Amino acid sequence: MAKIQRVTLFKVSDPSVVIPQMVEKLKTFQREATKDGKQYIQSYTAGPTVSDARNQGFNFCIQSSFASIEDMKYYDEECQVHAGLKSFMQGKLAGPPLTVFQDEFIGQ
Fold first, then answer.
1. What is the three-class DSSP state of 38?
2. Domain named Stress-response A/B barrel: which ranges (predicted)?
3. Could you tell me the pTM of the whole model?
4. Which residues have C-beta within 8 Å of that of residue 12, sequence separation ≥ 6?
5. Closest by alpha carbon to 4, among 74, 45, 64?
6. pLDDT tens-digit series, residues 43-83
7. Helix orientation angle between 80-89 and 15-26, rounded to the nearest 10 degrees
8. CB atoms < 10 A from the CB of 60, how many?
9. Which of 3, 10, 32, 45 fits 60 for a cystine, CB–CB 3.0-4.6 Å?
C-alpha cells in the first residue's frame, strides 16, 4: 500500500480546450515518470471534476500515490516529466493549484 496519498486540484481557465489537452498529456504520465530508471509513482488518476457548487471552481483533479515522502519530493523538485507538465500548464490556470497529501490512513 502507498504511504503517501496526494490530491491536486486545478482551476483550468478554458476547460473545453485545455482539459482534453491535459487528459491526452496525462495518458502516459505515470509510465514516463521514472526515478533511477524505474516507475516510482504507484498510482495516478486524473480527470475533470463533476460540476458542483462545492468544487469552488476547481475543475480538474489529479490523484497520485507514492511509496515515500522522498518519492513525492522527487516528483515536485526533480522529475523532468512533472516539470514538463508544469510548464505546459503555465498560463492555462485561473489561480494556483491546491495540493494536499496524507501519510496516515483510517480504514482500508
1. strand
2. 4-102
3. 0.90
4. 18, 19, 22, 59, 60, 92, 93, 94
5. 64
6. 999 999 999 989 999 999 999 999 999 999 999 999 999 99
7. 170
8. 22
9. 10
